[in-house]
Design brief:
Blueprint: H1 10-25, H2 27-30, H3 34-53, H4 58-81, H5 87-101, H6 120-134, H7 151-164, H8 182-198, H9 203-218
Helix pairs in contact: 3-4, 7-9
Protein name: Nucleoside triphosphate pyrophosphohydrolase
Domain NTP pyrophosphohydrolase MazG-like: 33-106
């Protein structure tokens, strides 16, 4: 099937109707709020990641992706009930954004370009430029990096943003013997956390502090987000 011929069938509509009925007739489901769903959204996203990283298989992946989709449908239903937007609006907005942010593939009207010559580097630059134009109020290259991210994931994201802004990212790297594989790196990181714990230190809090100092040391950064 050609990519432009892909169509979403009835199952998604059936799911939306099922969730609407559950919201109306199930006391537990009816009591859910955007705020109470946050922990489930994070949990389900991590379970998808674990399934992929442990090669859990297609059946497990399908199930876990369904759990993430449930969170999206629930949040959209809650918004629809208060007259804000519905799942169709979410899909339309996302589709428009993907077309807008990928001009190397799409024309502004959504039709395909005649050719696709863009390199990965060009794609990243274009993506950043479009995002910057969409949100000019973001005056700092680190804006938009969620503060709720675990410290290690946040460190990776901040270093990526700094690199794309042309800032030095090698602070603290000098003298560190980095293992050659992710398995060995994982053991090293686990050993650091264990040693920190034995010494009465909180590794997560320590890294969050280091990240704050890293951000403060760079000051205003040309936005890439």
């Amino acid at each position: 099937m050609a990519s432009r011929d892909i169509a979403v069938g009835a199952p998604l509509g059936d799911l939306v109707r099922t969730i609407a009925e559950l919201r109306a007739h199930c006391p537990w489901m009816g009591a859910l709020t955007h705020e109470s769903l946050v922990e489930y959204l994070l949990e389900e996203a991590y379970e998808v990641a674990e399934t992929i990283e442990t090669e859990g298989g297609d059946a497990d992946l399908k199930s876990e992706l369904g759990d993430v989709l449930l969170q999206v449908v629930l949040h959209a239903r809650l918004a629809e009930e208060r007259g804000a937007f519905d799942l169709d609006d979410v899909a339309r907005s996302l589709n428009a954004k993907m077309i807008r942010r990928n001009p190397h593939v799409f024309r502004p009207d959504g039709s395909l370009q005649d050719s696709f010559p863009a390199t990965v580097e060009e794609i990243v630059l274009t993506w950043d430029a479009v995002k910057k134009a969409e949100k000019p109020e973001r005056g700092h290259g680190f804006d938009g990096v969620p503060g709720a991210l675990p410290a290690l994931a946040r460190a990776q994201k901040l270093l990526d943003r700094a690199e794309r802004a042309g800032l030095p990212t090698a602070a603290g790297v000098t003298g560190v013997d980095i293992p050659g594989t992710e398995e060995e790196l994982g053991e090293l990181l686990f050993g650091i956390v264990a040693a920190a714990r034995a010494g009465g230190l909180d590794a997560e809090r320590a890294l969050r502090g280091a990240l704050r100092r890293f951000q403060d040391s760079h000051g205003p950064v040309s936005p890439a987000s």
